[in-house]
Amino acid sequence: MKFKTLSFTLIISIISIQHSIFSQEQLTAEQIIRKADEKVRGKTNQSVLEMEIVRPSWKRNISMKSWANGLDYSMTYITAPARDKGQVFMKRETEMWNWMPAIGRMIKIPASMMSQGWMGSDYTNDDILKESSIVVDYNHSIFAEERLEGFDCYKIEMLPKEEAAVIWSKVYKWITKNDFIQIKSEYYDEEDELVKSDFGYDFKVMDGRLIPSRIEIVPAGEEGKKTVLYIKEIKFDIELDKSFFSQQNMKRIR
Predict the structure, then answer these.
(1) How far apart are CA 187 and CA 172, in angstroms?
(2) Number of CB atoms found within 10 A of residue 107's CB
(3) CATH class of 28-252
(4) What's the pLDDT score for residue 25?
(5) Where are the domains of the chain?
(6) Do the beta carbons of residue 243 and residue 146 sit within 8 Å?
(7) 17 pLDDT exceeds 80?
(8) pTM of the prediction?
């Protein structure tokens, strides 16, 4: 009787494992991308970040606070250095704005500036302000399954949809199979040339989620250049109404 009970338990365990593996194999590339994106974004989030811009002959650090609600609303407030403190960048649906308190001006950022480096870094305005979405603006396919940095990963190929206003002709993302952590990306231009790569490091549990706390952006073919983003603090799924993302709030947020 004891043997039968043990055998039954073993069979149930095997079935459960097989079902888990089968369910994972049935995930589409878009579902994998959604899981990875939701993991680092949540429905809403609030974070404290530091950016280090590295060049062959100099370095620069920028500290900031950031808030986001879904894909369409985000705000970033610069806390340091002193010369940039108080600047605010906001995305609200299809509009992009920059508040510059030093000159008392609210500037609308045109789509033509989306490919430019944000605050002189290797992040583009598009990256920081999230005008384009890796979820909705691309068609996704599982290009390969590879082992990278000790992780079994899906390699996802992303090709822009015809109507999408994006700056990349192709993107590859490596996402871990077990935890859906994005550990590498490659971005290509219209000539199919690699423009930059990003890498996730120093995985930590932050507000209950295992995520990379350090992300490095490395331009292709430019030795000695990179941008490092450090996630110091982050809270997910906080109370954050869309009304928070307004021009009035840009001027008074701290």
Answers:
(1) 7
(2) 12
(3) mainly beta
(4) 59
(5) 28-252
(6) no
(7) no
(8) 0.84
